[in-house]
Each structure stands twice: as structure tokens, then as C-alpha cells.
Amino acid sequence: MRPTRRTTISVSALLLASLAWASAPASAVEPASGVTDLVKDIDQILSDARLTPARAGVVVKSAASGEELYAQDSGKVLTPASNAKLVTSAAAVDTLGLDFRFTTSVLSTGRRAGSALTGNLYLKGTGDPTLLAADYDALAARVAASGIKVVTGKLVADDTWFDSVRLGTDWAWDDEPYYYSAQISALTASPDTDYDAGSVVVSVAPGDAAGKPAKVSTTPETDYLKIVNRATTGAETDVLIERQHSTNTVLITGTVADDYNEWVTVDDPTGYVASLFRKALAKHGVRVLGSTAREATPAGATTVAARDSMPLSELLVPFMKLSNNMHAEILTKSIGRKVSGAGTWSAGLAAITSFARANGMPTLRMRDGSGLSRVDGLTPGGVTGLLLALRSKPWFSTWYGSLPIAGDPDRMVGGTLRSRMRGTPAAGNVHAKTGSLTGVTSLSGYVTSADNEPLVFSVMLNQFLSGSAKDIEDKIAIRLAQFSRTAPADVANVQLRQAQQDSADVECSWLKPVSC
């Protein structure tokens, strides 16, 4: 069809404008758009010399439209560290439900003859990481309240809800004593309400005088750990508390001037829990004549007492805010149990991988649920794809609320971001998951721009050689909070006040004695 005169004029005008723009000097070109400025500024941030030998993957997308605003190595597989918990936590909520609870039961077999139980007493767990010594004491009190005073059979610990594999395939053996690498069991206990399952707090205090032995105690009180105390009272605190490999012997050396606490894992959490429960039964007047054993609870056993944990909707807070590795692994095995009837890493990770691929993350390798494995692999593009997909989930608001919030000093609000980005446009704005291993750091989540546009982002930095690179993540997050499609922001004027930490290249949550 022949163009009208109006169309012809418009086309001619466009051609003239194009020619004029092409021939104009650089100084006459229109100022760069907000997106162009953003790209330039992130490129500048990533030009940091610490990243010269490293790998950096960064993706930023509009959560409103899905538009990609920035991408560097979007599809490269990188070590995510604790950013893996974004996948695990979302899969857990989707698979298990926000109302999911762990149940721990005391059951009996045999018959009752007055106050005597002529049979075995079973303690059956399903992985509850929130059980404290006080909760096992409460279960023992309920056994006594039921009228049982003597058990002629055995005390049986039933941890068969999960398999017997206690540690992740790729976990470093020298991490074994530390609470962030505790053994996974369907029967476990935590020392406090951070719920670091499978660990005990070992406390060291100065002795009566200089040179005298330090004083040692545990929370909870237990003789399951054998304490070898070689620490003495000195002018400064320079103490090492370490469980010896594959044993429950804890060696304490050095000097102590002030009270000091260390969270130490136990070898074989099932045995530890059985010892706590047997002592609790005795405290409440219940004698178990038989030995402690391990086996599955027979079908038809009678429930004597039971305890349900808090729902998953509440557990998400200490899990994600404090980046709790053990919660991630317990939930991974719980997913496997729910989906395929097998409480194993392989079954759980298969289900998590399937969930991720169905929700914006086509490329991933999951070797555990927490990110403690250095063989885990995610892509920045896949992480942002998942973050976008999760926004449409009916449970999104609860899950989103579990993410650490930049600069909020409340430990159960700011979490691992509580000391970062304070006094900047990102404070109270960035909701994101941190991640750290030596030479690895990551930060992925949500931020609202200066134009009130919701954004998703993923920053994954691998193989930097020394120190910390978290300030690079923070600068990017702050820049995103300043992003405007119409008004440029000068990255040189970004104010970044990051709290100093004793060991800034690891998760804040790994530094238990430090208020970080």
C-alpha cells in the first residue's frame, strides 16, 4: 500500500534525525539513561583489583517486568556458599508446607503391670532441630506422669526416620568440631534457641588465680563429652576449644582472662540424645533396667508422650536469618522422606533440584542443602530466575520475611546482614541471603530502587585470594537501592559504612562468640 503524505513526512523526519545524531560530536549526544549509568557503575565496582584473579557473576533484573538490567557471566556455574539455602528453603516450604512440624515421640511395647512397663521404651525422632535438653526433660516428666516408674526392657533410640549418613559427602574433615558442620540425625538436640542442632556450648572461665586451671562447664550439663582441660588462668584470653576428630573428647588449651564460649559438635547426636533422655527419666523417677539400644520402633507401639516443634513458618526465621546449616540439611532429608519415603541426602536433593528447575533455575548442582559443599553450583541468572518465580507463590510473603534485612540491628530481623550497609539507601531495603566460604562470597535477594521499582539481584564472587569482598556486594546493593531510570547516581558518592569483623571473610553467623 502506498504511504500517505503524513507517513512519508514522519519517515523522512526520522531519517534526518538519525543522520543528525550519527554526525553529531560526542559532546552533543544525549545523556546516558539510568540503565546505562547502572551498567557503567556496576562495571566500575567490579573492576576492583581483588577480583582480577577471581570470578564474578552478577545479574540484576526488574521484578516488575523481568527485564535484565545488568548481567556478567549470568550462566556461569559458581560456588554459591549459603546462597544454596535460597533453593533449599523455598523447596522445603513448597514441599512440606508452612504448617509442617517435626514430631518426637516416646512409645512403649509390652504390657503395663502397675507402675512397671514390661517391655521397651522407645524415643523416636524425625529430625527436630529445636529440641533442647529441657524439652527432653519435659518428655521424661510426661512418661512419669503416665504412671510408669520402672521399664524392665531397654531404652531404644529410634533415629531411622533418616539414614545413618551423618556428614555431607564433600564436607571438610577439619570442620567437624564446629557447630556449622554438625552431624545430621533424626534424633538431635540444640543447646539454645539459635537451634544449632548437634552441638553443645563449652564455657571456659578464669580460675581462682593466675596460673590456676580454668573452670569449664557445658550447656546443657552433660558427661557425653569428655573434657580434657589444659587451659590456665592468664592475663589474656587466648584459648582453643576443639573436639578431637571422630571422638567426643574436647581438648581445651591456652589462657583465659575472661569468660569464653565455644559451640562444639558432638560425635553421634543419637547417642547424645539418648544419654540426655535416660538421665531425664531418672530425674523424674523412671528407672530403665535395660541398656540403651538403637532400632526401629515396632508397628503398633503405644504412644506415651509426644512433642511437636514450631511450624516451618517460624523455623524459617532462625534458619535463614542466622544461616543455619543444620536446618538446611535436616529439611533436605525431610523433603526426601516426604517425596520418596527416604530420609537421605540423595532423595532430598533430587526433589530440591526438580523444584528449582521448575521455578526459573534450569542449571544447578546441589550436593547438600546448606552450601557448605564447595561442589555445589548455581548460576547468577538461575538465582534471579528463582527469585522472580517465587514472588508468585502463595507462601512468598512468609518466606520473604525470613531473609536477612540490611542494617537492622535486631538479630532475628537483620540476621547476617545486621551490621552491613547501615546508614545507606540499602538499609531496611535490601532483603537478601548472604553466603561465605574462604575465597567465596555471595549475596542474592530483593531491593527496591529509588523509583520504587522492585528488583532482584544475585552477586556471586569466587576465588578471590585474600581478605573479604563483601564490601563489593554491598556497593552493588546500595547502587541498586539508588537506581533510577531517569536520574543518574554517582557511584563515587556512595556512602558505605560496613561494620568491622574479626574475620570478615566468613559468615557473620559463624562467629558465635562475636556480636556481629
Automatic annotation (TrEMBL):
Q: What is this protein called?
A: D-alanyl-D-alanine carboxypeptidase / D-alanyl-D-alanine-endopeptidase (Penicillin-binding protein 4)
Membrane-spanning regions, if any? none
The biological processes this protein is annotated with in GO are: peptidoglycan metabolic process; proteolysis
Organism phylogeny: Bacteria, Bacillati, Actinomycetota, Actinomycetes, Streptosporangiales
Q: Supply one GO molecular-function term.
A: serine-type carboxypeptidase activity
**PROSITE patterns per the UniProt record, alphabetical:** TAT (PS51318)
What family does the entry list? Belongs to the peptidase S13 family.
Write the signal peptide boundaries. 1-28
SUPFAM superfamilies to which the protein is assigned, alphabetical: beta-lactamase/transpeptidase-like
| Alphabetical keyword list | Carboxypeptidase, Hydrolase, Protease, Signal
Alphabetized InterPro entries for the sequence: Beta-lactam/transpept-like, Peptidase_S13, TAT_signal
Q: Which NCBIfam families match?
A: PBP4 (TIGR00666)
